[in-house]
Design goal:
This protein is α/β, with parallel strands linked by helices. It is built from 18 helices and 30 strands. The N terminus is likely disordered. The structure holds beta-D-glucopyranose (BGC).
């Protein structure tokens, strides 16, 4: 017989192990396996294919519980599996084609603005806010998490993504995804992977070696997935090294599921499934199946599974993965409830991101912040008397009451009427008038050069707004500002040296007029409170702290690819059929040296470097130390040496690795400091940044040798340096 204490210990042990078993049984994996085991064969192809949830197709009646949005996947009532109600996207709840009449949503600033904050906590808050709005509108899947790194500054979707760097993109997108999913909804990360251009996006074949792939675009996805734990990964339209990404055994089965141990499901992009074999190659769900040639993941998949045990096993796995994402995020236990969204909260979050995301690129003679003594200000162009620009395509968000202006961009296809430059209801001119109390503020449209120059001559200060609209489905041809705006700025700046340029662009632009201007602000697409945020920075209520998340090149000739593939040589055959010649985007030219790394490799100076941005105060760094061992971390002191509160973004770069010169962002921190205040900051270096991918050993190899780091204000403004010796090491994929 046991004595009393031993007895109670034994009971405790028993209870503990019983609770471990109970916990295991209720883990998302266990629940998914249990539900899948109860499915009939017919039920096994319910979650695997969805429909477009838009009442656009004649005769299509949406299911009663569907919400008009991007997509819908029916649930299985008998098993308590909820239907999936999908909405775009990373910048807020989109209003696809403006068809959901009920409501507006808060438009966040562009992804590039979120990237420019270099503030992961703020990205998370943004994700939480848009996820809460999605939930309040009845959605439980958000097609958010755009994380493709900017391989080409002309990419039409640059504004939806974060940056050109895998670490910055992965961290910011991962936090945004975690924020979205904190609302008991599933988020994606997308578009997996190498969706680097919109030109012929459904046909272009991205060529990239495994080493280059792992160290660049894939690393961004890997970090975002680790941080954000998205329930789903959306594959892309393009091919990679031959197969379509949604049909790529290497990308989906090997990299994502085996090497990274990803437990969620892969959904296709809308109309990107080439055939049933995609299931074998790792695709788990066919989205909006009517956009593909056939509903492959419906009856054909059921028939294949009935005949082929391997396909039957795969089908079970597909279901378990979708169910895992549902249970891990509590879609079954916390269904979305339609409710009023918190509009004030939405606007406050959008404004906070805009204020931290706007980048001050130039400030000659400290013309900014504008003095309260300015007497006359003329605001020119960019519809600044109306609203702020937003990007086009599936991510288009519409605020309360819809856009304040929508300018058709033309075209004659069936969808041409949907292609519009939309402006949000946030009026920069009004916001400037509120701030410029003592000044006479006037506005001219900027469509007449003579009128604009005349007004500029008469005013003390000129603020020119310039816009560049980008959209999914098309790329920028030349990085010039459209509609003669480059000429307008040049002429106005010539007429008045106190010319301040505010850019609302979808990505980098060339600035042939730069030297003539007094100041330049990159405001991106600044979202639902963009006008107020711009004015707040112009007049110094907000001290700018945005830093560029990508290089602004000085010339198209400096890019790794002078032309976007397919842009000049191929046009699609009528009906959107494939072009006559295959289109290859050769990403091995820059390889994993994307953006600033390419500039470091080639020695070409940028117009504005990655990580660059000015402030109204000043900062100094000292005391850089690096500690080695299992985990490399660097510490340094940042001091606000100016006279205003401000936030700095010190950046740690790896500049040489075991004898090889290179440049990689290895860590960063956003630090808010009062005048005179100093803080010791420490950043931990992800070992993958130090490593090279070694395909033969399927892992990351850190070579023994000396590793040199530099602390910088931007990729081209490096201050203190320090070196550390590292042992050789092989890390798992
Ligand atoms: C886009 C996706 C989007 C989907 C649904 C596609 O055209 O590439 O990003 O989520 O449409 O709207």
């Amino acid at each position: 017989m046991m004595n009393a204490p031993t007895h109670s210990i034994a009971i405790l042990a028993l209870l503990c192990s019983a609770s471990a078993v109970a916990q295991k049984a209720s883990s998302p994996e266990a629940k998914a396996a249990a539900t899948e085991a109860r499915m009939t064969d017919d039920e096994r192809v319910i979650l695997t294919n969805g429909i477009l949830a838009l009442p656009l197709i004649p005769g299509l009646k949406l299911p009663d519980d569907a919400v008009a949005g991007s997509g819908y996947v029916p649930g299985i009532l008998r098993l308590g599996v909820p239907s999936l109600k999908e909405t775009d996207a990373s910048l807020g709840v989109s209003s696809v084609f403006g068809l959901r009449k009920d409501d507006g949503a808060t438009a966040l600033p562009a992804g590039t603005a979120i990237g420019s904050t270099w503030n992961p906590a703020l990205a998370r808050i943004g994700g939480e806010m848009i996820g809460a709005e999605a939930r309040a509108k009845g959605f439980n899947v958000m097609l958010a998490g755009g994380v493709n790194i900017m391989r080409d500054p002309r990419n039409g979707r640059t504004f939806e993504y974060i940056s050109e760097d895998p670490l910055l993109s992965g961290i910011i997108a991962g936090e945004a995804v975690a924020g979205v999913q904190s609302n008991h909804i599933i988020s994606t990360v997308k578009h997996f992977a190498f969706n680097g251009q919109e030109t012929q996006r459904s046909y272009v074949n991205a060529l990239i070696s495994e080493e280059n792939a792992r160290e660049s675009d894939l690393l961004a996805f890997q970090i975002a997935i680790e941080r954000g734990k998205p329930g789903s990964v959306m594959c892309a339209y393009n091919r990679v090294n031959g197969p379509y990404t949604c049909d790529s055994d290497w990308l989906l089965n090997k990299v994502l599921k085996r090497d990274w141990g990803y437990k969620g499901f892969v959904m296709s992009d809308w109309g990107s499934v080439p055939g049933l074999q995609a299931a074998t190659n790792g695709l788990d769900q066919q989205s909006a199946a009517m956009l593909d040639k056939a509903n492959y993941f419906g009856a054909p998949l059921a028939q294949a599974a009935a005949k082929d045990p391997a396909m039957a096993a795969r089908l079970k796995d597909m279901n378990r993965r979708i169910l895992y994402a549902i249970y891990a995020n509590g879609l079954d236990t916390h269904p979305p409830v339609k409710a009023a969204r918190d509009k004030a909260r939405g606007l406050a979050v959008a404004e906070a991101i805009a204020k931290e995301g706007i980048v001050l690129l130039r400030n000659e003679r400290n013309i900014l912040p504008l003095a309260a003594t300015a007497r006359s200000i003329v605001v020119i162009g960019g519809y600044a008397d109306t609203g702020v620009l937003s990007g086009g395509g599936s991510s288009q968000v519409q605020g309360e009451g819809g856009p304040v202006a929508a300018i058709p961009v033309g075209g004659d296809g069936p969808m041409a009427f949907l292609s519009q430059e939309q402006y949000h209801r946030s009026n920069p001119l009004t916001a400037i008038k509120v701030q410029a109390k003592g000044a006479k503020v006037s506005f001219v449209r900027g469509n007449s050069l003579g009128e604009a120059v005349d007004a500029a001559r008469k005013a003390e200060v000129v603020i020119v707004f310039a816009t560049e609209w980008r959209s999914e489905g098309t790329d920028s041809i030349d990085l010039a500002l459209p509609n003669g705006q480059d000429q307008l700025i040049a002429a106005v700046a010539e007429a008045n040296p106190n010319t301040i340029v505010v850019l609302e662009t979808g990505g980098p632009v060339l600035m042939p007029w730069l030297g003539k201007t007094a100041a330049v602000l990159e405001a991106w697409y600044p979202g639902a409170r963009g006008g107020e945020a711009i004015a707040s920075i112009l007049f110094g209520q907000t001290n700018p702290s945005g830093r560029l998340p990508m290089t602004f090149p000085a010339s198209l000739d400096d890019l790794p690819r002078r032309w976007i593939e397919g842009e000049r040589t191929n046009s699609l055959a009528p009906g959107g059929e494939p072009p006559a010649q295959e289109v290859h985007a050769d990403y091995n030219v820059d390889g994993s040296d994307v953006g600033y790394r390419w500039h470091a490799r080639t020695g070409k100076p940028a117009l504005f470097a990655f990580g660059y941005g000015l402030t109204y105060t000043s900062f100094a760094y000292d005391g850089l130390r690096v500690t080695g061992g299992r985990q490399i971390s660097a510490s340094f002191t940042v001091r606000n040496t100016g006279e205003r509160d401000g936030a700095d973004v010190p950046q740690l770069y790896l500049v040489s690795a075991a004898g090889r010169r290179l440049q990689r962002l290895a860590g960063f921190e956003k630090v808010m400091l009062k005048p005179g205040e100093a803080r010791r900051v420490s950043v931990t270096v992800d070992p993958r940044i130090l490593a090279e991918w070694e395909s033969a050993r399927n892992g990351w190899r850190i070579e023994a040798g000396t590793y040199e780091f530099a602390l910088g204000r931007s990729a081209s403004d490096l201050k203190e340096r320090i070196a550390v010796r590292l042992q050789s090491k092989l890390l798992k994929p």
